[in-house]
């Protein structure tokens, strides 16, 4: 290996790029290159450039004060350089050095900005990399390979400690020293890392122990939570199953009650309609009077015929013919008496007939009164039925308000009588087909419970009433202030699209005066089939709602999802316009009054019926009395007729008598025939009267039966409504409880109740469920005892355990590395000591030889200086604890320095500083030559080392250098002519007026050949 080339640019006086090429070995010897030039020409800058590129850090050694001093500073004719660079090239093709390159190029650059860089074969490198490479090549910036100006004396005059470093490098252990130094640094870093790791280890270990316990608790908690979750899921699944079964039963019962209610309401309506028809029928008193008059006329006709018949029979009696003349006077008196009696009887009959007519009129009046009372009773019964039904429905409707939390709405409706004109809720004012109920409920939203009122003054009263009673708040829609929403022009075209059912406002049936109300609520909302229809129309173009209740706002907001069916929720399906103007409190008072009036009519009806019975009895008595008097009158009339006939016969001849008898008999036969016809007519008239009474009795009984049936059906309807309301309340409670369970399930398990129910958990049966609930409580208590451990603890534990294991592994690795480094240092120390001792012996021997050559005799020696190794505080403490002081023989000795003994021939010198300048130079050269002989360097730079020698001594030095050139390449900077004669090539350095060093070269072999 030899130095092949030096390239210098911008370094000190070498402003221009300067290349120094060196001769390769020849004839078994390395080349000797001499650099000459006048003082100040910059020839020593070549040595400085080599020292700098080889890693010299001391600017003082480079003869400067600051780093930028090595960059060409400029001159009068040339500006300063911004960079200094030096590249040296080694040829290692012979592989004498243990480096891996056939050609090694080391470069260094320094910029005026302060930045610097090292390059090895064109690649950036570190300073340590350069030092190691040069150490392997047995050379370096501070080694014996570069002997600069002033170093000759310094080598002799420096202390033993300083001289030891020079000998270490000269002994060829520089590479090992660098390795040892790196090992020591690594050892210190390792100890620091071990200390830091142990501190972290001491910090992490307790935390890991705590986390380990927490992880154990967490694992225990997780097992408890798994069991708890399984039990809770089964528990909630059981509750869900129970609630849903009960809800299904209640709904089935409600369906059955609805069927019964509809049937009873239908029957009740039929009865009410029939009763109303009976009550609305006009009275049949005229028919009864006609029948009575017809019967009386026929009876009178019969009585008249009977009188005529009695007279004829009296005429036909023959006993009067045989009476004497003396009896004529008596008969005349008798006739007069009988006529007087007949007149009296006639008067009495007239009086009885008059009284009978009055009594008959009373009976008829009482019958009419009974009929009127009965009609009033039927009407009242209908009103009572209607009010009871409405009250029951209204109470059921109020229960909906209570269940839906509309307490303020209920309060306003209950007090509507003194608050003003209140029409009802929006849900009550509209009727909706079943298929559109969900869609329109969603579209109306909170406005379902808004109260429609007359004007803002009513709103003011309602709000003050709610505030005073602390009932809550409600929304009011005054008809006088509402403004309908404008309908967009595109609505008409959208209504024609497929899947569009129509405008929401058009799908509600309502009174015309509420047009503005429903226009405000629904606006231009479209009811569409489904979400796909809405997407096809364009979400955000217009407000839309699907039949399933998914709502699409014009803002682009979409609302939708699963909607649980609830019977107690306010809806268009639960509203009823029939009860819009119904007030529960007023209706209950009216119902009470109607029932009181009905009771009063019942009393009057009973009293009137008693009077009718008395009048009817009196009428019967009068009829009997009248019949008796009629019989008496008939007898008297018959007797008078007989007597008068007798008197007439007394004046008749037999022939006349016979003719009279024939006429009488004929008249009797005619009267008897007429009486037979009258008997038939009387029988018919009597049957008509009897049938009339029978029909009236049947109708009366039918009315009574219908009233009883209506009352029973009304009770059944009320019972159905109450049962439905009770079950509706129970259903609402169950559904509310189910929702509470669903909310509790989500809060406890973060999953929905439907999701748990769909997993098919086996439900608990009987006592098993109670035991599960107890177990759940115990598990929760166990969890409370374990405490709330964040699951991140597991992550932290794993991270801490990983750090712990990593630190533990690092500590083991560091301790192993520490042991390995300590072993390495010991091995390097042993190796360096071995090599140093070997090299020292050889150097000592060669030093004595070269000293004798140079001084032509004399003695020279190298002495190693040892001292006891200082103990560390830890060792002292350990020694103090053991109490066993070491003997002086056991104390470790370390090499502290090298002393030089030099005694020229004929002199006795005890102190090397007593030598003259030339002697010190020769001694130093002898030492350098001894080192080079023992440990040859690939190249050696000598910068005017022989300047203080005379020609004879210089000649001896040159002879030694020629001997040493067999192993080392020499580059000598000199003024000495003797030295120049030993050169294979000479470089001349000059400096012109611009302050820039210039280089001239001469190869002496070529010059001699020429």
UniProtKB/TrEMBL annotation:
Domain of life: Bacteria
GO-annotated cellular components: chromosome; cytoplasm
Region of interest called Disordered, as start-end residue ranges on this chain: 868-891
GO terms for biological process, alphabetical: chromosome condensation; chromosome segregation; DNA replication; sister chromatid cohesion
Chief location: cytoplasm
SMART domains attached to this UniProt entry: SMC_hinge (SM00968)
UniProt keyword annotations, A-Z: ATP-binding, Coiled coil, Cytoplasm, DNA-binding, Nucleotide-binding
Localization terms from the record: Cytoplasm
InterPro entries: P-loop_NTPase, RecF/RecN/SMC_N, SMC, SMC_hinge, SMC_hinge_sf, SMC_prok
Keyword Chaperone: no
Record-annotated SMC hinge domain positions: 420-538
Coiled coil: 261-369, 584-646, 675-726, 797-838
SUPFAM superfamilies: P-loop containing nucleoside triphosphate hydrolases (SSF52540), Smc hinge domain (SSF75553)
Binding site for ATP: 38-45
Single GO term (MF): ATP hydrolysis activity
Quaternary organization: Homodimer.
Family membership noted in the UniProt record: Belongs to the SMC family.
Entry remark concerning the domains of this protein: Contains large globular domains required for ATP hydrolysis at each terminus and a third globular domain forming a flexible hinge near the middle of the molecule. These domains are separated by coiled-coil structures.
Function text: Required for chromosome condensation and partitioning.
Name this polypeptide is given: Chromosome partition protein Smc
Source taxonomy: Bacteria, Candidatus Magasanikiibacteriota
């Amino acid at each position: 290996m030899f130095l092949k080339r030096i390239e210098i640019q911008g370094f000190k006086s070498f402003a221009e790029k300067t290349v120094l090429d060196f001769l390769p070995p020849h004839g078994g010897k390395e080349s000797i290159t001499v650099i000459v030039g006048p003082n100040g020409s910059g020839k020593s800058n070549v040595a400085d450039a080599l020292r700098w590129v080889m890693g010299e850090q001391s600017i003082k050694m480079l003869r400067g004060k600051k780093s930028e001093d090595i960059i060409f500073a400029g001159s009068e004719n040339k500006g300063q350089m911004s960079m200094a660079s030096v590249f040296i090239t080694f040829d290692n093709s012979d592989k004498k050095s243990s480096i891996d390159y056939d050609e090694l190029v080391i470069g260094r650059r320094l910029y005026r900005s302060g930045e610097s860089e090292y390059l090895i074969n064109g690649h950036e490198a570190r300073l340590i990399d350069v030092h190691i490479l040069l150490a392997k090549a047995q050379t370096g910036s501070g080694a014996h390979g570069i002997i600069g100006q002033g170093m000759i004396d310094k080598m002799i005059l420096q202390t033993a400690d300083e001289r030891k470093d020079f000998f270490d490098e000269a002994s060829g252990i520089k590479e090992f020293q660098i390795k040892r130094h790196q090992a020591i640094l690594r050892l210190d870093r390792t100890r620091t890392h071990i200390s830091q790791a142990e501190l972290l280890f001491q910090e992490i270990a307790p935390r890991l122990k705590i986390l380990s316990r927490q992880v154990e608790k967490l694992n225990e908690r997780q097992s408890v939570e798994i069991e708890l979750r399984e039990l809770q899921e089964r528990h909630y699944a059981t509750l869900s199953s129970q609630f849903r079964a009960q809800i299904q039963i209640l709904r089935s019962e409600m369906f059955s009650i609805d069927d019964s209610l509809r049937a009873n309401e239908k029957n009740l309506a039929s009865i009410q309609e029939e009763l109303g028809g009976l009550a609305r029928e006009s009275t049949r008193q005229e028919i009864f009077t006609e029948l009575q008059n017809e019967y009386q006329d026929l009876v009178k006709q019969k009585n008249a015929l009977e009188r005529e018949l009695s007279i004829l029979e009296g005429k036909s009696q023959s006993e009067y013919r045989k009476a004497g003349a003396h009896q004529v006077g008596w008969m005349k008196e008798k006739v007069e008496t009988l006529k007087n009696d007949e007149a009296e009887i006639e008067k009495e009959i007239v009086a009885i007939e008059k009284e009978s007519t009055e009594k008959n009129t009373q009976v008829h009046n009482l019958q009419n009164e009974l009929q009127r009372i009965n009609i009033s009773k039927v009407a009242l019964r209908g009103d009572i039925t209607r009010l009871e039904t409405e009250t029951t429905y209204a109470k059921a409707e109020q229960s909906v308000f209570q269940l839906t939390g509309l307490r303020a709405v209920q309060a306003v409706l209950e007090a509507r009588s003194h608050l003003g004109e209140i029409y009802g809720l929006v849900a009550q004012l509209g009727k909706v087909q079943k298929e559109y109920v969900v869609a329109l409920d969603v579209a109306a939203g909170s406005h379902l419970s808004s109260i429609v009122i007359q004007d803002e003054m009513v709103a003011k009263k309602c709000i003050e009433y709610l505030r005073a009673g602390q009932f809550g708040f409600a929304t009011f829609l005054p008809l006088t202030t509402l403004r309908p929403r404008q309908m967009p022009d595109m609505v008409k075209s959208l209504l024609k699209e497929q899947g569009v059912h129509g405008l929401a406002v058009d799908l509600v049936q309502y009174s015309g005066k509420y047009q503005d109300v429903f226009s405000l609520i629904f606006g231009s909302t479209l009811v569409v089939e489904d979400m796909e229809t809405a997407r096809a129309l364009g979400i955000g173009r217009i407000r839309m709602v699907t039949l399933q209740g998914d709502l699409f706002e014009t803002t682009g907001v979409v609302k939708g999802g699963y909607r649980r069916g609830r019977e107690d929720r306010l809806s268009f399906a639960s509203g009823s316009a029939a009860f819009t103007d119904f007030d529960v409190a007023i209706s209950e008072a009216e119902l009470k009054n109607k029932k009181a009036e009905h009771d009063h009519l019942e009393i009057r009806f009973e009293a009137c019926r008693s009077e009718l019975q008395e009048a009817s009895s009196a009428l019967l008595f009068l009829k009997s009395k009248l019949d008796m008097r009629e019989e008496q009158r008939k007898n008297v009339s018959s007797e008078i007729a007989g007597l008068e006939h007798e008197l007439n016969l007394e004046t008749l001849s037999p022939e006349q008598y016979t003719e009279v008898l024939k006429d009488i008999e004929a008249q009797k036969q005619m009267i008897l025939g007429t009486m037979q016809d009258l008997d038939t007519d009387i029988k018919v008239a009597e049957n008509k009267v009897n049938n009339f009474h029978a029909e009236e009795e049947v109708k009366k009984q039918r009315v009574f039966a219908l009233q009883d049936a209506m009352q029973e059906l009304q009770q059944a309807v009320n019972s159905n409504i109450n049962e439905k309301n009770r079950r509706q309340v129970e259903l609402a409670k169950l559904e509310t409880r189910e929702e509470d369970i669903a909310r509790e399930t989500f809060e406890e398990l973060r999953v929905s109740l439907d999701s748990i129910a769909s997993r098919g958990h086996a439900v608990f049966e009987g006592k098993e469920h109670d035991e599960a609930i107890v177990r759940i409580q115990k598990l929760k208590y166990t969890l409370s005892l374990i405490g709330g451990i964040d699951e991140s603890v597991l992550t932290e534990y794993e991270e801490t355990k990983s750090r712990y294991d990593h630190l533990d592994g690092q500590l083991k690795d560091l301790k192993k590395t520490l042991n390995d480094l300590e072993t390495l240092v010991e091995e390097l120390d042993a190796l360096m000591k071995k090599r140093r001792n070997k090299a020292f012996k050889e150097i000592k021997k060669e030093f004595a030889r070269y000293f004798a050559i140079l001084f032509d005799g004399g003695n020279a020696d190298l002495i190693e200086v040892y001292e006891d190794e200082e103990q560390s505080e830890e060792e002292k403490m350990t020694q103090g604890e053991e109490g066993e002081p070491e003997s002086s023989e056991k104390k470790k000795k370390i090499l502290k320095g090298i002393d030089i003994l030099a005694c020229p021939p004929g002199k006795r010198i005890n102190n090397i500083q007593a030598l003259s300048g030339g002697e010190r130079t020769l001694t130093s050269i002898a030492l350098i030559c001894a080192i080079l002989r023992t440990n040859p360097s690939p190249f050696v730079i000598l910068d005017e080392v022989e300047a203080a020698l005379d020609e004879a001594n210089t000649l001896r030095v040159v002879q030694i250098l020629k001997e040493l050139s067999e192993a080392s390449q020499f580059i000598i900077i000199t003024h000495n002519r003797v030295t120049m004669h030993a050169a294979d090539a000479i470089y001349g350095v000059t400096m012109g007026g611009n302050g820039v060093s210039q280089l001239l070269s001469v190869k002496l072999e070529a010059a001699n050949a020429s």
